[in-house]
Every structure is written in structure tokens, then in C-alpha cells.
Amino acid sequence: MVHNSKINLRRTGFLVAAFVLTLAAIAPPPALAQSAKSAKTLPVPRYVSLRAGEVNMRTGPGVRYPVDWVYQRKNMPVEVIAQFGTWRKIRDFQGAQGWIHQSMLSGARFVTITGQIRTLRRQADAKSGPVARIEPGAVAELLNCPEGTGWCKISAADHQGWLRRVEFWGLYPRENIK
Q1: Which end of the chain has the smaller Cβ count within 10 Å, N or C?
Q2: What CATH number should be reported for the domain whose range is 43-107?
Q3: Strands 130-134, 118-121: parallel, antiparallel or unpaired by DSSP?
Q4: 2: part of which helix (H) or strand (E)?
């Protein structure tokens, strides 16, 4: 009888080991599971920027879809408006839409200057002295957008200063950046 219980314990141990190995083989590695979870928790819509100096925008979410446009401006801000797996549907400041792989996007915040030539100010005040003049279409890093003000601090071409929120694209009206 003792001999049979040893066989049953061995069989049970073998079955448990086989079950654990099967789970390990089919479960995603922790890093992949975490990145998939993180992507699902990020809000849509949201602003991001292009990670590289050359980024393909496709007509659909996958490499089988043709390239519709090639962006050639690193850090250009885009708005994520939909997600499908590892693909993000984006919109640029001119309204063009398409799909970009998530690996080509960064969470770093940048803005595109809109309208006419803008004056970068020393302080968040229209009467403050000028730091530089920035042309439309220029890309600048978004540094700070305090709550309750219509101004944001940006950095463009080695110059830091303040612009009114209405003078660029890449920030939601009530969004604050610290």
C-alpha cells in the first residue's frame, strides 16, 4: 500500500510540473504582458511625437497596407485617435490621418507652431520682452503648461520662452504639463 501512494505522489507531482510548464510556454513574458497592459490603459485620444526622422504612415494597421505618406521630421507631434494591436491611427496638424506602428511613436511632448510667425516671450505675458521669433510649421518641445493660464513654456532651437496656447498645435485646451 505504501508503494502505491508513492506512485500516486509521483504521478501528481508529474502532472503539476507538466501543468506549470504548459502555462509557462503559453503565457507571454512579463515584459510583453506589461507593455500590452500599458498600451490599453493609455487614453485615446492623446498627443505623442514621431520617434525617428523617417516614419511611414500607412493606409491601414499593418505592413500589408501601402505607405500613404513618409514623415521626415523627428519629434513632430501627432494625435493618436485609435488603436489596433500595436498600430496607432494618428492625425497630424494638417488633418492627415493614417496608421503608424507604436515603435515609431514616443510619449515625449512636442508642438507645431501654427498661423503666422510667433514671438517667444521671456515671461507668460504679452508685454514681456521677446526671446525669439518662430516660423509656422516649426516643431518645439513642450516644457510646461501651468493650470489656469493661457501660456506654455517651450524650447525651440536652443531658445526657451512662453507662447500662448492658441499659437501652436499639440495640446488639449484644458491640458496641463508639468
Answers
A1: N
A2: 2.30.30.40
A3: antiparallel
A4: helix 2-26
